[in-house]
Amino acid sequence: MSQYTGPVPADRESPMTRSETSPSRAQHPSPSQKPNTCCFCWCCCCSCSCLTVRSEDDKRGRRKTQETKLEPFPCETCPKPTMEEIKLWAQSFDKLMKNPAGRNKFREFLRTEYSEENMLFWLACEDLKKEINKSAIEEKTRLIYEDYISILSPKEVSLDSRVREVINRRLQDPTPHIFEDAQLQIYTLMHRDSYPRFLNSSVYRSLVQGGSRSSSES
Question: What angle do CA 59, 63, 64 make, to 5 degrees?
C-alpha cells in the first residue's frame, strides 16, 4: 500500500504544530518573559529600558558639561608664608581667606576631602566681580552656573532653594554680583564645616612644625 503524502487534516495536526501557529499562543508570552513596555513609561514598578537610556544620557550630559567648564584656577603665586602668618590663620577664617598662601593651603586641604569645588566657586565669584565687560560677564556667569550651580554638574555646590531661585531670576540680566548670596553661603559653609578640620589636619600641622623649625634654625 502506498503511503499518503498529502496535507494533514486539521484534526490530525500534532500538538506542537498547533502551538506554533495558534494566534492565542503567539499573543501571550510566558510568565517569565518581560513585557515590552512603552518608552514613555516612567513608573518605578516596570522594567522599562528607557530608564537605562535616561541614565546614559545623563552621564553623557555630565561629561559634556565637564568639557565646557571654566579652566581650573591655578594656585595663586605667592611667597612662602611666615610663621607669624601661619599662626594668624588659626585666629580667624577671614585672615586665612585674605592671605593668598592661606587660600592655597586651605584649598589643598579641601582637595583631600573632595570638596575643592567650594573654594573654586568662591574664587570664580571673586573673579567675576572684577569683570566690567557685559559680554564677558554673561559668558562667565553661564560657565559658573554650569560648573557649580547646575544639578547636572559633578561639581555642584550645596545651596538652598531660596538662593537658587534668586540666581535663576537674575540670569536674564546678570551682573558681576549675581552669585553674591551663593558665595556668602559657601563661604559660611567652609567656615563652619571645613575650617575647624583644617586647623586639626596634617596639612596645617606640618606648616606649623616646619615654620617652628625654620625659626629655631635662624
Answer: 115
Report the 10 Å Cβ neighbour count for 134. 11
Q: Where are the beta strands (DSSP E) in the chain?
A: none
Residue 211 dihedral angles phi and psi, to the nearest 5° = -65, -35
| CB-based contact 148:155 (threshold 8 Å) | yes
Within a 13 Å sphere around the CA of 149, how many CA atoms are in the beta-carbon half?
A: 26
Residue 30 gets the label, from left (phi > 0), alpha (psi -120 to 50) or beta, of beta
> CA-CA-CA-CA torsion for 210, 211, 217, 218, nearest 10 degrees?
150
**Angstrom distance (rounded) from CA 149 to CA 183:** 11
Whole-number Å distance between alpha carbons of 186 and 122:
7
pTM of the complete model: 0.66
Chain segment 136-171, per-residue pLDDT in tens: 999 999 999 999 999 999 999 999 999 999 999 999
